[in-house]
Design brief:
Layout (H helix, E strand, L loop, with lengths): L6 E2 L11 E6 L4 E6 L4 H9 L3 H13 L15 E2 L5 E4 L4 E2 H9 L7 H25 L11 E4 L4 E4 L4 H4 L5 H18 L6
Antiparallel strand pairs: 1-2, 2-3, 3-5, 4-5, 6-7, 7-8
Helix pairs in contact: 4-6
Protein name: PhoP regulatory network protein YrbL
Organism: Aquibacillus halophilus
Length: 197
């Protein structure tokens, strides 16, 4: 499977991508996700949105995700949705949070004090906004697992690039995300921060 002008994005072997193949064109700064159609999860997903009515719900969910209050700074926009469920979105320049976590755990990554402070602030801001949304709506849409999050070191924000998750996932709890994932990440960041002198 190829997309003309785009390069297939490969992932760390510990990160799975069951529904889509991801192609990127860094010149145009765009990402295209294409339904794999070669796994049970991708086939099941395609069948679910095959009907016009369900596809319209899916498309509307993806296109409007970026407008959610509190969550806006952490959601990648979608510019086009394809009939197989794939979509086009801007390429987020930065580091995948799950990859970063693995590199910390394996001792392959050290960061400066300045980088550490920016990253810790970005994590705190993400948690605060997830919590504010949950308190306002009593639910939290989207898949906020670490492998779906990218730290954008230009805006210093953590961005969810798994926009299909706003259609497929509901029920995440901000406190559970914080306790199970973010607190451990913050601990590892502090542990792997270079100290002057």
């Amino acid at each position: 499977m190829k997309v003309k002008g785009y390069r297939l994005l490969t992932f760390d072997k510990k990160i799975t991508n069951g529904i889509f193949k991801v192609f990127v064109d860094k010149k145009s700064n765009l990402v295209i996700k294409v339904n794999r159609r070669d796994s049970s999860s991708s086939s099941k997903f395609y069948k679910k949105i095959k009907g016009t009515k369900e596809f319209d719900i899916y498309k509307k969910t993806l296109m409007s995700a970026v407008n959610k209050e509190f969550l806006k700074p952490h959601i990648c926009s979608v510019t086009e949705v394809f009939r197989d469920g794939g979509y086009k979105s801007p390429f987020v320049q930065g580091k995948n949070i799950q990859v970063m976590l693995i590199e910390f755990q394996e001792g392959h990554l050290m960061i400066s004090k300045e980088e550490s402070e920016k990253l810790l602030t970005a994590i705190d801001n993400l948690y605060l906004n997830l919590k504010q949304y949950y308190q306002a709506h009593e639910n939290l849409p989207g898949d906020w697992m670490l492998h779906n999050l990218v730290y954008d070191n230009v805006s210093n924000k953590i961005i969810n690039v798994d926009i299909e998750g706003f259609y497929t996932f509901k029920g995440f709890l901000p406190d559970r995300i914080n306790k199970q994932y973010l607190n451990n990440l913050k601990y590892l960041i502090k542990k792997h921060t270079e100290h002057e002198g």
